[in-house]
Amino acid sequence: MNLVIKTEKFNIDNVMLYKTSKYKTRLGYKENKLLMNGLCLHVNIHDICFINLNNNYKCTFAYQRNKYAIFQLIQLEKDLLEKYKPILNKVPSYNICREVAECPGTLSLSKTRKGLYKGIVIKIIGIWETDKEYGLIYYFYPIHNEI
Predict the structure, then answer these.
(1) Structural domain of 110
(2) Is the separation of the CB atoms in 107 and 134 below 8 Å?
(3) Which residues of the chain carry a pLDDT beneath 50?
C-alpha cells in the first residue's frame, strides 16, 4: 500500500536523501510522525484516457487544459535534482520534462492492468547517477480513485 500526497501539499524541505551506492540514492519523505520510503504524489490531470498499445499502457489527456499540472511535475523534478546536486561537473537529466515535451498530452504508465482508472500517481523512489549525469528514478501508474 502506498500513501499518496496531493501535489499542493508537497514540501521539498521534507525530502530526505540516502546514498545507497556509488550510482544510486534513495529518496525519503518525512512529515510530522510519518516517514515514507520514496514519494508518491497525485498528478492532478483532468480528462484522462488510458490506452493499451501492444501491452504498453499510456495515459492521454488534453495538454492545454492540464498545463499547470504538467508545470508542477517539471518544477518538482527540477527542485528534487537541485536539492541533490552532487558533483558540479555532472549534468542533471530532466527525464520527466523530456517525456512531456516529446509527446505532449501522453505519459507512459507502468504496473498497469486492465481496469477502470480515474487518476495518476507518480512514484519517485530515488536518483540514479553516472559519471556524467544524474536524474530521477520514477514511475507513473494509474489509480482507481480520485484523490
Answers:
(1) 5-143
(2) no
(3) none
